[in-house]
Amino acid sequence: MFEFGKRTYIMGILNVTPDSFSDGGEYLGVDKAVEHAKEMVREGADIIDVGAESTRPGAKEVSEEEELKRLIPVIKRLVKEIDIPISVDTYKSRVAEEVLKLGCHIINDVWGLQRDKNMAKVVAKYDVPVIIMHNQIGTEYKKDIMESIKDFLKESIRLAKEAGVKEKNIILDPGIGFGKTPKQNMEVMRRLSELTELGYPILLGTSRKSMIGKILDLPPKERVEGTIATTVMGIMQGVDIVRVHDVKENLRAAKVTDAIFRK
After folding, report:
1. In this protein, which residues make up the domain named Pterin-binding (predicted)?
2. Longest C-alpha distance within the chain, in Å?
């Protein structure tokens, strides 16, 4: 599905939620959601990541039934109407199984297979890539933050392998904005290259996040340039996929960075 190391892949964000921090409610209707996905494909997205539960700080959890109600009509259309991989952003194994049955290609788990212990088995059963993200409740770290992130990810990798997930299907995400203060997020950004020591592809998701907002003092939709800066920094430190709202702009930045830094 991917040839990591040759270029940066662009994952376009499609939120079918009423309460996402940046574009909540904009793509709630199935037709609107599908058209936005197609627009991102036209702009050069390599993957579409569909989320039906907001993971912004303070967001309310939704039930499996509600999440599936939002996802299923959109996924059914997307698997027929677009020809790039579809990822679903969920930490619930039942939701993952239902969308994989429909033909979804990737699972993006913001709790790194550690919230729902059945998730690794589902991913292994369908033999699909899984994005394992670092997350925690609160922002206290008992030791160095990057060592803590690596320890968490190592445990997730252990769970994945134990369940039968293939090495080639594991992708890591440092979880910018999750269980971290803005200052901690900036430290993780500075030290992203340390994650390459684990030997797996890395996804970076910084798009329009509060770290950028705090630096620029701007609302989410005016954080495009700030996001691009983090995209470039990520690629320079070994990131393989960037998860973004603004596909066209980040793709252009990634192409230039790839041309200079990837040999």
Report:
1. 8-255
2. 47
List the catalytic residue out of 243, 248, 252, 262: 243
Question: What is the token pair recorded at 64?
Answer: 């499996």
Each residue of 159-194: pLDDT tens digit?
999 999 999 999 999 999 999 999 999 999 999 999
Active site residue 209: yes
2 beta partners = none
Give catalytic status of residue 92 as yes or no: no
Nearest alpha carbon to residue 222 among 235, 204, 209: 209
Measured between alpha carbons, how far apart are the two ends of the chain, in Å? 21
Structure tokens at 86: 């579809």
Question: Are residues 148 and 141 in contact, defined by beta-carbon separation less than 8 angstroms?
Answer: yes
Give dist(CA 223, CA 212) in Å, integer.
7
Each residue of 155-174: b (16+ CB within 10 Å) or e?
ebbebbeebebeeebbbbbb
70, 92, 150, 209: the catalytic one is: 209
Q: For helices 224-236 and 182-190, give the axis angle rounded to 10 degrees.
A: 40
CATH 3.50.50.60 for domain 9-261, yes or no, is no
Per the CB < 8 A criterion, the answer to whether 96 and 90 are in contact is yes
pLDDT, one tens digit per residue, over 211-253 is 999 999 999 999 999 999 999 999 999 999 999 999 999 999 9
